[in-house]
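Quick review question:
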C-alpha cells in the first residue's frame, strides 16, 4: 500500500497516535494491552489508532499466536523527515530569492 505524506502527517497529528509512536520508538514490539496501559483510553480505542498508524505505514502488525504485536517502521519516519527537509530547502531558496529581489530593488531607489 502506497502511503502519502498526508497520510503520515495526519496520523502523527493526533496526540494519542503520536504517544503510541513514541512508545514504540525504542524498537520493542508491543501488544495492545502494553500500549494501552500507560494511557487512559481503552484497548479498543488503541486498536483503532494503531490501524490508522498501520495504514499510514508507521507501524507493522504481526500475529503471534492469539495476539498481535506492533512495531514501529522507522523508515516511514525517515521518509517523512526527508520530505520535510526538502520542503524546508525549497522555502529557504524561495526566501533567498525574495531577499535578493528586495535588496536589488532597495539599492535602485
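Suggested answer, residue by residue:
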Amino acid at each position: 500500500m502506497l502511503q502519502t505524506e498526508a497520510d503520515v502527517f495526519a496520523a502523527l497529528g493526533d496526540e494519542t497516535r503520536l504517544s503510541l509512536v513514541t512508545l514504540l520508538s525504542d524498537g520493542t514490539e508491543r501488544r495492545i494491552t502494553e500500549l494501552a496501559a500507560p494511557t487512559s483510553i481503552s484497548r479498543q480505542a488503541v486498536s483503532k489508532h494503531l490501524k490508522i498508524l498501520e495504514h499510514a505505514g508507521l507501524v507493522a502488525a504481526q500475529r503471534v499466536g492469539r495476539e498481535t504485536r506492533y512495531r514501529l517502521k522507522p523508515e516511514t519516519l525517515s521518509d517523512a523527515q526527508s520530505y520535510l527537509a526538502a520542503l524546508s530547502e525549497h522555502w529557504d531558496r524561495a526566501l533567498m530569492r525574495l531577499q535578493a529581489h528586495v535588496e536589488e530593488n532597495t539599492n535602485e531607489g
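Why it works: The first helix runs from residue 5 to 12. The two ends are 56 Å apart (CA to CA).
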